[in-house]
Design goal:
The protein has 246 residues and is of the alpha/beta class. 30% of the residues lie in helices and 21% in strands. The chain has helices at 13-22, 53-66, 76-85, 96-104, 108-124, 153-161, 179-182; strands spanning 3-6, 25-26, 33-34, 39-42, 70-72, 129-131, 136-138, 164-168, 174-176, 188-191, 200-202, 205-207, 217-223, 227-232. A hairpin with a 5-residue loop joins strand 8 and strand 9. The mean pLDDT is 96.
Length: 246
């Protein structure tokens, strides 16, 4: 199995386009297809905050649902957008407002199309992916070793939000335990969710959310080579959005 696992895109469509081309994907068909048979995988948070969330949805839906040519797991922003599209009451904040603004600018038929595609993408996705004969796990915010193979509300909360304590930091973000520091499994776990200035590699885990939407990089991890490929963001750098993790 040969994959290129993409970190949190957050509507950074241009960076995604450039990164896939750097990885050897061609867009002649309208979707990034690798000439050597490699596939893309996504750690979630496709949308919100960035300028072209709906374009990202179109491409990932096409790859995953239409062509069975990629893997996807949902992130917390995906979950919130799904609930919005299903008509649930959600706060249109923390980046969702950018996606909603794009959506509201569409015609009714275009709205129905993108809404239906995203709902289908989300509903067909597992909470996390266990791939390559259980040697690789992809989960948006990571997953503890003892939770792999389980599917319940506790697992859902963990993979979407991380190992949260229920407390809040002064800025309102949830306090999270550093699960990766204690991970001692043989499986490689690739995740995102928490922006870091450079890929964090610890105990067979890889955090590849390098904050593209906050002016960092959009990162891919090549598997099984475990090589990092990045492209710089075109957006302004927002230093306080990056977590310092020892």
């Amino acid at each position: 199995m040969r994959l290129d696992i993409i970190g949190d895109i957050h509507g950074c469509y241009e960076e995604f386009n450039i990164l896939t081309k750097k990885l050897g994907y061609e867009w002649d068909s309208g979707f990034p297809i690798h000439t050597d048979g490699r596939k893309l995988a996504f750690v979630g948070d496709l949308t919100d905050r960035g300028p072209q969330s709906l374009n990202v949805i179109e491409i990932v839906w096409g790859l995953v649902v239409q062509h069975d040519a990629a893997y996807y797991v949902p992130g917390n922003h995906c979950n919130k957008l799904y609930r919005y599209f299903k008509g649930n009451k959600v706060q249109i904040t923390h980046g969702l407002e950018t996606t909603v603004a794009e959506y509201e600018a569409l015609s009714k038929s275009e709205q129905a199309s993108i809404r239906n595609k995203f709902i289908e993408l989300y509903e067909k996705a597992p909470l996390y992916q266990v791939l390559d004969n259980q040697k690789l796990v992809i989960a948006h915010a990571g997953i503890r070793g003892d939770l792999i193979g389980k599917n319940n509300s506790k697992v859902k909360t963990f993979v979407l939000y991380g190992d949260i304590t229920g407390e809040q930091n002064p800025d309102g973000t949830p306090v999270r335990r550093d699960w990766a520091k204690k991970y001692n499994g043989d499986r490689i776990i690739v995740y995102g969710h928490t922006p870091v200035s450079e890929v964090r590699i610890i105990n067979n885990t890889y955090n590849i959310d390098t904050g593209a939407v906050f002016g960092g990089n959009l990162t891919a991890l090549k598997y099984p080579e475990l090589e990092i490929v990045e492209v710089p963001s075109s957006l302004p750098f927002v230093a306080e959005k990056f977590r310092s993790i020892d």
